[in-house]
Every structure is written in C-alpha cells, then in structure tokens.
Amino acid sequence: MKRGILIVFEGIDGSGKSTQLRRAAAALRERGLDILETGEPTKGTWGRKIREMARTTDRVPRETELAWFIKDRREHMRDTVLPALEAGRIVLCDRSYFSTVAYQGARGFDPAQLLADARAEFGHPDLVLFFDIDPEQGLARVAARGGQHEPVFEELNYLERVAEIFRGLAVPELVRIDAGKSEDEVAAAVRAAIDGIVGGVRSTDSGRTRRHPRSEVGKRRLCAFSRPGLRRSSLLRARLQIGFDDLTRPSHR
Predict the structure, then answer these.
(1) Rg for the chain, CA atoms, rounded
(2) Rounded to two decimals, what is the model's pTM?
(3) Could you give the 3-state DSSP secondary structure of residue 241?
(4) Tens digit of pLDDT for each residue in 2-28?
C-alpha cells in the first residue's frame, strides 16, 4: 500500500523552524509534489487550551499540561496526519512529540520515558529536523518579530533546559540543523536533508506523490504511525538513556 512521507520540524521558540517549514513546502510544491503543512498544538479543542494557557502566566499542573498535548496529538494523527499519509502526501509538521519530550521533560518528567511512550504509541516520522539555536538568540528573535508572546514557554532558564533535552535526543531519523546561521544557509541545509528522503519521490497526474520503486526511500521501513503500536525494547531504552545521560555532564557551550 502506498504511503506518504512525514517530516517533522523541531526546535525551541525562535529557532526559525516555522519559517523553514514554509520555505520547504513552497520548494517541494514547485517540484509538483503534494504537500500538507500542519503542526502542533492544533486549532482543535485541546490545542486551543494549550495556546490559551501559554499566553498567560498561570500554568496548569504538569500532569494536566502533558495530558492536553497527548490528547491533541491523538486527534491530530487520527484526523489529519494519517489520512494524508495514506493518500500518499508529503506531510510537513511543525512540532510533534519531540517537543513534548523536551518541554515537558524540562518540567520534571523523565525525557527518556516520555520518548519511549510516544514512540510506542505514535511510531516515528521519516525525518526529524532539529533546529538547534542558543536560547538567548532564540528569545531575541521572538522579541524582534513581535506579535503574541507565550510567557509560559518563553523563559530563558526553562528554554535552556529544553534545548539540552533536544540535544540529547538519540533517534536515528533526527538531523541537527545549525539554526544560528542565516536564513538562506539554514534553508540550504534543510533542502539537503529533505532531498535525502524525497529524492526518490515523483509527482503523479492525480497530484499525489509516489515513491520511485527503485529508490532507497521506497525501501525504508513503513512508518509506524500506520501501526497499532510499537514494542518497546530494552535496546531502545538503552539508546535513549545514553543520550539523556549526557544531560548530567558539564556543558561546554
């Protein structure tokens, strides 16, 4: 059965991931590929709760916050992402469970456990682009662009913890992008990473995208988002723990 490609854009506030997602979507559409742009939190019931909370200084208990993100993601996957993948589309998603691991991990949850639980329920994307930037630079960008702020999440000490967790992620589909460079330099790095995934994909007369049968992309394992669940192995736990054990070491930034 044909399926599309899921690419997730991740990073702290001000990393430029949303800008790069829009640029990537435009470039892929110019190649005649069928693209869906989406993101989390969504505009659904749970996503609205998260956004409303984020714009205040009145944070809900961490357990409630985590539950909202998970409920929002379940609806998003069921109603938006999975149908698009089943239709053979390329899905570009602004944030997914990697943000939950980092942001809720910074609130005191075990990041390795959050990641293992998320991968057991939601599987893994084809590619994760992590836009790595110094939190101070990220917050400076947030301030410069104006608009609505989210004080719950946009606090330096908190974002420093979030960034460290992001940097400790140990998953094979993740590609680190130096988001401190110029927008065009970052876009070039994004293009190179995406080409490694969609290089074997061509457009069809129906507007859908299909993998070339001889491409390496076509040989990749089916995305586990289409499976009922993943078995959590001791090997996965060991690999995750190795990545997050680095968080206890002194920083050399």
Answers:
(1) 18
(2) 0.81
(3) helix
(4) 589 999 999 999 999 999 999 999 999
